[in-house]
Specification:
30% of the residues lie in helices and 26% in strands. It has helices spanning 15-22, 31-35, 37-41, 85-99, 128-141, 177-198, 263-267, 272-283, and strands spanning 4-6, 43-49, 52-57, 64-71, 116-123, 156-163, 167-168, 210-214, 219-224, 227-232, 236-240, 247-250, 253-258. The protein is an alpha+beta fold and 289 residues long. It has a 5-stranded antiparallel sheet with strand order 2-3-4-6-5, sandwiched between helices. The model has no long low-confidence stretch (mean pLDDT 90). It is globular, with a radius of gyration of 19 Å. One of its GO terms (molecular function) is histone H3T3 kinase activity. It comes from Rhipicephalus sanguineus.
Length: 289
């Protein structure tokens, strides 16, 4: 079952127009128009979810991560209906709002939510270079997704371009207790900042949704109305990602995804996170707003 998402009801534009506006576009772009073919030649698939695929493009300090989500299609993908523009809009809004918390000219700020470089509204077939890297990932790790060669020329996508946040905490090898402490404190302070500024709730913060990368910075700085915090990095920088289930308040509007009727999410077994989903549903009495 596709997740039902809620957006402010007073917005006069339809969801497709709102997405185009957020992407600073008048119409959908092709993959080549968005990033150029060179970027796709320097790519590797690094992750996936039922939403779609994640690739790293570029290399070194110029690398980025792109998350490609098919939308508005008439057929299921990866066992679920494709999201509509209205259903993915909350995630796009939340990504931009959290990324903006890195600005230090505000009462609450921190750098630990993944930076959104840009959003793109795309239309077209999957590029061959990405399909090739999809196959490499599948041969090495056995993808659970459908191969995205099924998309036709009229298929639409929302593509998120993020800074390269490194390796998921799930796969990262922690080298010391001081590294572990730093990662924990960075994430805890980031949540405190977002809760204060936006009444933010992540709702899916398992260790796959925290990225860790080495850093040369010795300290990071967080600001709250109550005061300023300086944290030692101990050589690691943590980034919070993936706001598919998240909620926040933007002015008087609540931006969220309503998963109260998505039975599969609450029937999962095998991982502690599935128990948390069920407890979360009980605690908020099925009210996800």
């Amino acid at each position: 079952m596709a997740r039902k998402s809620e957006i402010p009801p007073r917005v006069p534009l339809d969801a497709n127009q709102m997405l185009l506006e957020m992407c600073n576009q008048d119409e959908p772009l092709t993959f080549k128009q968005a990033l150029g073919m060179r970027a796709f030649k320097e790519c590797v698939k690094i992750g996936e979810g039922t939403y779609g695929e994640v690739f790293r493009i570029g290399h070194g300090s110029k690398s980025s991560a792109i998350k490609i989500v098919p939308i508005e299609g008439s057929f299921p993908m990866n066992g679920e209906n494709q999201k509509t523009a209205a259903q993915i809009l909350p995630e796009a809004i939340i990504c931009q709002e959290l990324s903006a918390l890195s600005r230090t000219d505000q009462a609450a700020s921190c750098p630990n939510f993944i930076e959104v470089k840009r959003l793109y509204y795309i239309q077209g077939r999957y590029p061959p270079a990405l399909l090739k890297q999809w196959d490499v990932y599948d041969s090495e790790r056995r993808s659970e997704n459908d191969r995205p060669d099924c998309f036709k020329a009229d298929q639409k996508y929302l593509m998120f371009q993020f800074s390269d946040g490194g390796t998921s905490l799930e796969d990262y090898e922690i080298n010391s207790a001081t590294e572990a402490k730093s990662i924990f404190l960075q994430v805890a302070c980031a949540l405190a900042v977002a809760e204060t500024a936006l009444k933010f709730e992540h709702r899916d913060l398992h260790w796959g949704n925290i990225l860790v990368a080495p850093t040369q910075k010795r300290h990071i700085h967080c600001h709250l109305p109550q005061g300023h915090f300086t944290l030692k990095t101990n050589g690691v920088f943590a980034s919070v990602i993936d706001y598919t289930l998240s909620r926040l308040c933007k002015g008087r509007a609540v931006v969220f995804t309503d998963v109260s009727e998505e039975d599969e999410l609450f029937r999962g077994v095998g991982d502690y996170q599935f128990d948390i989903y069920r407890r979360m549903k009980e605690e908020n009495k099925y009210q996800f707003e």
